[in-house]
Write a structure and sequence with these properties.
Protein name: Ras-related protein Rab-5C
Number of helices: 3
Organism: Bagarius yarrelli (Goonch)
Family: Belongs to the small GTPase superfamily. Rab family.
Number of strands: 5
Shape: globular
Order of helices and strands: EEHEEHEH
Strand order of the largest sheet: 1-3-4-2-5
Largest sheet: 5 strands, mixed
GO molecular function: GTP binding; GTPase activity
Strand content: 15-25%
CATH superfamily of one domain: P-loop containing nucleotide triphosphate hydrolases
Radius of gyration: 16 Å
CATH class of one domain: Alpha Beta
Keywords: GTP-binding, Nucleotide-binding
CATH architecture of one domain: 3-Layer(aba) Sandwich
CATH topology of one domain: Rossmann fold
């Protein structure tokens, strides 16, 4: 069954994951999360101050995945705050949202890759202690230089 952004379904396992968006200023972090959470895109987005927090829940097979999304500010003056936001995150995203191409797909790919063997009650999923991240990079799509993009 294809994943779909919406509320929890009855009888599903519930998993909660902290996800952080990282990158320089004006690369599209806020646009990406706004596109995923609200389905909106604004050509001229105000710069994030510190960080913004949003949530989105998706249903994936028999599991309800709740993302706790931290959209970090990219300006140099906020770089020292970044570790506070990404500590304990199970995934980090660096990408763009202007055309909406692959926006839902990246979040659904993360939801599929994150470990869902331990259902988590509200609030307990953000600590991330003892967890490792996920690697969504498919080595078959790398260029000959070893980078993911040409």
């Amino acid at each position: 069954m294809a994943g779909r952004p919406n509320g929890p379904a009855a009888g599903n396992k519930i998993c909660q994951f902290k996800l952080v968006l990282l990158g320089e200023s004006a690369v599209g972090k806020s646009s990406l999360v706004l596109r995923f959470v609200k389905g909106q895109f604004h050509e001229y987005q105000e710069s994030t101050i510190g960080a913004a927090f949003l949530t989105q829940t998706v249903c994936l097979d028999d599991t309800t995945v709740k993302f706790e999304i931290w959209d970090t500010a990219g300006q140099e003056r906020y770089h020292s705050l970044a570790p506070m936001y990404y500590r304990g995150a199970q995934a980090a995203i660096i990408t763009s949202a202007k055309t909406a191409m692959n926006v839902n797909e990246i979040f659904m790919a993360i939801a599929r890759k994150l470990p869902k063997n331990e259902p988590q009650a509200g609030g307990g999923g953000a600590s991330g202690r003892g967890r490792t991240g996920v690697d969504l990079q498919d080595s078959t799509h790398q260029s000959s230089t070893g980078k993911c993009c040409n």
